[in-house]
Amino acid sequence: MHPIFLHYPIQVPTKQVSDKPYLTFADQSYYYFIIPTSITERVALELYTIATHYHQQGWTNVTCPIPNVHNQFLTSIGKEKYLLCYAIYAEDKREEAIKLSSFHQTGFGYPYQPSAMNSYGKWKELWISKIDQYEALYKQLYQQRPASPFIRGFVNMFPYIIGLAENAIQYMHIVEQESQFNESDQPSITFGRYKSDMNDVFIWSDRFVYDHPVRDIAEKLRQYMLTPNGLSSQECQQLLQGYISNMSISAFGWKLLYARLIFPIHLLDFMDQFRQTSNHYSDIEELVENQSVYEENLRTFFYQIGIDEREINSIQLDWLLDV
Hints:
By secondary structure, the protein is an alpha+beta fold. The protein folds into two domains: about 5-90, 2-Layer Sandwich (Phosphorylase Kinase, domain 1), CATH 3.30.200.20; about 125-320, Aminoglycoside 3'-phosphotransferase, Chain: A, domain 2 (Alpha-Beta Complex). About 45% of the residues lie in helices and about 10% in strands. The strands form two sheets. Strands 1, 2, 3, 4, 5 and 6 form a six-stranded antiparallel beta sheet that branches. β2 and β3 form a beta hairpin. α5 crosses α7 (about 250-260). The longest helix has 27 residues, at about 150-175. This is Spore coat protein YutH. One of its GO terms (cellular component) is endospore-forming forespore.
């Protein structure tokens, strides 16, 4: 028996079924997940209320935090803090795009506005804050001697990253002037970095963010943006058509999505992942190579996905048009 179960008023499950991505136990139809975490009790409470909402709407495969015997969601074992969550397996054979749009629609019905995990309408401020943090790191690494190949690669690439970030922030000024909205522009439950979460057996609530639905579409499309003509691929086109057939995207939504794709989140995430190491210079070289493909897809973005830029009054970036 795992010691965490001593802290919960539930029947102790004895069957361990997995250890990835989290230690998982099963008891009849219930699955229990032991999730290491650094979140606050306040965030855990918000995750609990959101997961409960989804369970009530039939999404029982969303992991839901369980309060312990002290009526708290965070449990300390040694120096680590954990969430114990449960979910009920529910088979869903729908296509990813249909599941994602339905997930967002269910999120529209969530009756509260989270405070600790709310990013809706805050992208510009969050991006500025993020870049400020990286500029401090850049100044620190710029002075470092001797410098590893990775640090040199980061230092050389950083001005380019800053340029892209500033372009995205400037583009947000255009987005903020848009007046064509629809019902899909209200906040919903999204993911910090959506990959293919809807295709997972369980939907991990610890990845939730309260935000505009196009956040997830942008992060899904970002994967296609790193391959030549990826946006034109049948797989990408089917995903977009499937989503839009269930939930439309407004002119405001398309511009917001495009602004997010301009912001180099994938480059910053890479830096986060590898900045503590010194042997990934070849990965940076590959990243630079992929970025030229990404820029081309940015330049032809609306054309490839079949959106008439005149209809949404889109404005392209000058430096992309000059490529």
